[in-house]
């Protein structure tokens, strides 16, 4: 497969970094976009050290001008954009009565509004070649919740709706749009995992960033273009597990 131009947002750490590295290992040229420029450079440098090609770009996804400038820069430098992974996201797990409108807006702007703007700007480039893949990182929390997760759950639910709406709108430009809903993914920054944590899953383990990164590569493969407007749940079977207490 020829090298492709891939933009991954929120790629300075965790899940985004794993996705960026997976595409680079596949031989693609990766744009590592993150609000923390130093973190983005670390990821890009790691990719280059391992023989890949990556470019770190500062991008605050809450700012439309940052997104427009990034997309224009990438198109000018490479002439095309093949894949966009809308991964950037934040959470605010805070008591419902204490959650402020400003905090709510910050989550929606970072998680959903940015995906809308990025998709629109990147699609303008993709449609010139009549091909492209957009992957939105949603969450199993879009369809199930625990207390005090309103802002995050709402943003991820919106990502699912945005996904199938974009798939419908971009079909004539041959741009496929899909979502991935990760379950419990251990990025290494949370507390240590217990045996009970792993046992909650049919797969008998908590997920890791590579589980999601490999799924992104699968959805972006042009041979899988018939998968469109879909949400791929990757959670080790956790949301299918019936629990009686």
Care to describe what's here?
It is a single chain. The chain is an alpha/beta fold and 245 residues long. The protein has one domain (5-240): NAD(P)-binding Rossmann-like Domain (Rossmann fold, 3-Layer(aba) Sandwich), CATH 3.40.50. The protein has helices spanning 14-25, 37-49, 64-78, 101-129, 150-169, 195-199, 209-220; strands at 5-9, 29-34, 53-58, 83-86, 132-137, 175-182, 231-234. The chain has a 7-stranded parallel beta sheet, with helices on both faces. It is globular, with a radius of gyration of 18 Å. The N and C termini lie far apart (50 Å).
Keywords:
7 strands, 7 helices, single chain, 16% strand, Rossmann fold, 7-stranded parallel β-sheet, alpha/beta, 43% helix, 245 residues
How is the secondary structure organized here?
Elements: E1 5-9, H1 14-25, E2 29-34, H2 37-49, E3 53-58, H3 64-78, E4 83-86, H4 101-129, E5 132-137, H5 150-169, E6 175-182, H6 195-199, H7 209-220, E7 231-234
Parallel strand pairs: 1-2, 1-4, 2-3, 4-5, 5-6, 6-7
Percent of residues in β-strands: 15-25%
CATH topology: Rossmann fold
Provide the CATH top-level class: Alpha Beta
| CATH superfamily (homologous) name | NAD(P)-binding Rossmann-like Domain
Task: Briefly note the structural class of the backbone.
Answer: alpha/beta
The count of β-strands is 7
Helix content: 40-55%
Shape: globular
In CATH, the architecture is 3-Layer(aba) Sandwich
Average predicted confidence as pLDDT: 95
Largest sheet: 7 strands, parallel
How far the N terminus sits from the C terminus, by CA atoms, comes to 50 Å
- DSSP helix count? 7
Radius of gyration: 18 Å
Tally of separate domains: 1
Low-confidence sequence ranges: none
EC number: 1.1.1.100
GO molecular function, one term: 3-oxoacyl-[acyl-carrier-protein] reductase (NADPH) activity
Organism: Halalkalibacter krulwichiae
Family: Belongs to the short-chain dehydrogenases/reductases (SDR) family.
